[in-house]
Every structure is written in C-alpha cells, then in structure tokens.
Recover the amino acids of this structure.
C-alpha cells in the first residue's frame, strides 16, 4: 500500500534525507501526512497526523509499518512512530520537535508552529500557500529552497516570493483560495527557520 502511494507521489526519499542531514533532525511532525511514512526512514521520532479514514486505517497496523521501517531506515536508534488520527488544527499532545513537514495539506505551518522548537525547521511547498504564509510570518525566516535535484540552496534567495511588476503579496487571497501565488521564481520546496 505504501509502495503504491510512494510511486504515485514520487519518491520523497531524497527530499527528506537532504533536509534531515543538513539540519541534524531527530524529531518531526507531519500534519496531513496521509500515508507518506518516508520521513521515518531518516528521522527516528516522527508523529504523523491525519484525520482521513484511509490514513487512520493504514496506521492501525503499526507493527507492520515499524517492521518495514526497521529494515529500510538510515539510523541506528529504534524507530519511534506515532500516529494521531485527528484534525491538526486541534490541540496536539506532543513535545516540541526539530522539523515540521508540510506537503499539500493546507496551512500546516501556521496551524502547528507552536510545536516547533525555536530554531526548528519548516519544510513546505506552496501548493496550498503554506510557504507564502510562512514568508510573511515574523515567526519564520526564509532560509532556503530545495532544488529540483534535491540540493539545499541557502543563498541567492532574493528573487523568490516576488510577483510580476513587484505587486504586493495578498495574503487574504492566499488564505481564501488556499492556493500559492504565481511568483517570478518558484521552487518545489521551501525551508524556513522558526526565529522566536
Ligand atoms: C493531498 S493529501 C497530501 C498527503 C501527503 N502530505 C503527501 O504529500 O503525499 C492531504 C492530506 O491532508 C489531510 N488533511 C487536510 N487537512 C487536515 C486537517 N485539518 N487535519 C488533519 N489532516 C488533514 C487529508 O486528510 C489528506 O490526507
């Protein structure tokens, strides 16, 4: 089931592995994860959160998932996988983590930033506008992008989040439409650091 899904969404291994190695990530939350358990190959402690029936069903068989990860994981610590079958905008009973993963699942960074450590990393795309909201959020600093070949680029970032004719970013429209904007220069994934 996971293999079918991984094939559908494209291989995320290189994306997560690059970010984990660069920022020494030990713990993460993945709100709106569906069944994308790829982060657990690289991060010992991940909490997945999704209120979709199919995801809840998938994570019921935790033992099979953990055995599968045990065989494939890149670290020596035991895997610590937690699933919460709830709305991620509701309070989460968890300790602060090193990384938030936000992929095609709404305003994840905004809803869950309280569970990110100061200096922790938000990895997000702009499909639903989560990156645009983080860019305009004083709690976050825009520190990098992930290139198409999964390298992390932390300089020459000035031209991202710039609209044609230098139009201002209209956050109300991002929030209403739940859609990122058509910037002059875009990346598949963006990196933000929580600064306060
Ligand atoms: C398009 S899928 C993306 C799944 C996965 N992140 C990926 O990239 O393959 C969006 C997922 O987010 C979940 N989701 C959206 N809003 C949510 C919320 N408020 N609370 C919990 N899960 C949510 C949906 O149930 C769905 O499984």
């Amino acid at each position: 089931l996971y293999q079918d899904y991984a094939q559908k969404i494209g291989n995320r291994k290189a994306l997560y592995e690059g970010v984990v190695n660069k920022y020494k990530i030990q713990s993460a939350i993945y709100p709106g994860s569906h069944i994308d358990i790829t982060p657990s190959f690289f991060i010992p402690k991940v909490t997945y959160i999704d209120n979709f029936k199919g995801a809840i069903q998938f994570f019921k068989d935790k033992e099979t998932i953990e055995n599968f990860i045990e065989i494939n994981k890149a670290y020596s610590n035991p895997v610590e996988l937690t699933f919460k079958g709830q709305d991620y905008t509701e309070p989460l009973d968890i300790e602060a983590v090193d990384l938030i993963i936000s992929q095609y699942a709404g305003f994840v960074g905004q809803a869950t930033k309280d569970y990110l450590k100061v200096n922790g990393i938000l990895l997000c795309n702009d499909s639903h506008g989560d990156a645009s909201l983080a860019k305009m959020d004083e709690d976050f600093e825009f520190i990098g992008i992930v290139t198409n070949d999964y390298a992390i680029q932390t300089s020459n970032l000035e031209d991202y989040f710039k609209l044609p004719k230098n139009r201002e970013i209209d956050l109300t429209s991002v929030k209403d439409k739940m859609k990122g904007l058509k910037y002059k220069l875009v990346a598949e994934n963006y990196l933000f650091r929580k600064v306060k």
